[in-house]
Design a protein that fits this description.
6-stranded mixed beta sheet, disordered N terminus, 7 helices
Length: 299
């Protein structure tokens, strides 16, 4: 029988709410709030498209340096559910990879060559991914310039799929393989393109989060806060809501449009990305410390 506790469970996208999309780093303030929440017994789970390498260097190591206790476990679901690991104050545990969700190595090699030959001025191939294939905007490139080039890259990456007889979709475009099936997705974001198996997603990450908590013997909270900066991040809250949990979703980039949902959607007026994420994490840390009652009004 699963037990429940009164504190919130936190399911956090990383790019945007936790890490700055400009610097790709996490502020000391955000790190401090995360350590305080985990130390207070709030389950903290990252649910991200980022690699395990990124989480170790940009999140785990700063949290350990900031005093994450040796006996406090934090979970990281990476590559949208295809890769996962846990860590505490002593370091990371074993990294797990779902081999059924990994793209063919030959296709990854072809994308690496495509980037090197045609797009290296705007983006780089992410060598740290273990399952999906990702390219990301160079930090010294203006985002508008990258987004213009991204359209051409995505078209070339989609065309490459046909060479390997891989059925793929990108937004509303579908290109089945020779068996008339579609097994992969090209997913553009504001700073990257992820090429991934259809089985991955933030909903899969939510299910893995619950499994990791149960496997660790951690009481699963009845109440959750999910946090993201894109419309696909709502799948975390959708999944938890469908499983009967009490959930509210924090949208740190609501200008993209807030969809109608059967659960509350929280925002911070005038703040976006990790600035908005920090405001909520600060409020939750105050709640954990007993100095705030709720998160209905975050400034």
């Amino acid at each position: 029988m699963t037990s429940y506790v009164s504190r919130f469970g936190l399911l956090l996208d990383v790019d945007g709410p936790v890490a700055s999309p400009l610097t790709r780093t996490v502020s000391p303030e955000v790190i401090g709030h995360l350590v305080a929440l985990a130390s207070a017994g709030w389950p903290v789970v990252f649910n991200t498209g980022r690699s395990d390498d990124f989480i170790r260097t940009q999140v785990m190591e700063p949290m350990i340096a900031a005093g994450l206790p040796d006996d406090v476990l934090v979970h990281a679901i990476c590559e949208k559910g295809a890769v996962w690991f846990s860590f505490n104050g002593t370091g990371p545990g074993l990294v797990e990879v779902d081999g059924e969700l990994a793209l063919p190595r030959e296709y990854a090699d072809a994308v690496r060559e495509l980037v090197a030959g045609s797009y290296a001025g705007h983006m780089f191939f992410d060598e740290t991914k273990l399952a999906m294939v990702s390219v990301e905007q160079n930090i010294d490139v203006a985002n508008a310039d990258y987004l213009a080039e991204q359209e051409a890259f995505d078209a070339d990456a989609l065309a490459l799929m046909s060479r390997f007889d891989m059925g793929v979709c990108r937004l509303d475009h579908h290109a089945p393989d020779s068996d008339d099936s579609v097994d992969y997705r090209i997913d553009p974001t504001i700073i990257s393109t992820d090429i991934e198996a259809l089985g991955v997603g933030k909903d899969l990450g939510a299910r893995r989060a619950l499994s990791l908590l149960e496997a660790a013997g951690t009481p699963v909270p009845r109440t959750w806060r999910t946090v993201g900066d894109s419309r696909t991040d709502y799948a975390m809250a959708d999944e938890l809501h469908s499983l009967g949990f009490d959930v509210a979703h924090v949208d740190v980039r609501p200008a993209d449009g807030v969809p109608a949902k059967p659960y509350p959607v929280l925002t911070v007026p005038g703040r976006i990305h990790d600035d908005a994420g920090e405001a909520f994490l600060r409020r939750w840390a105050s709640m954990a410390a007993g100095t705030a009652e709720d998160d209905s009004a975050v400034a």
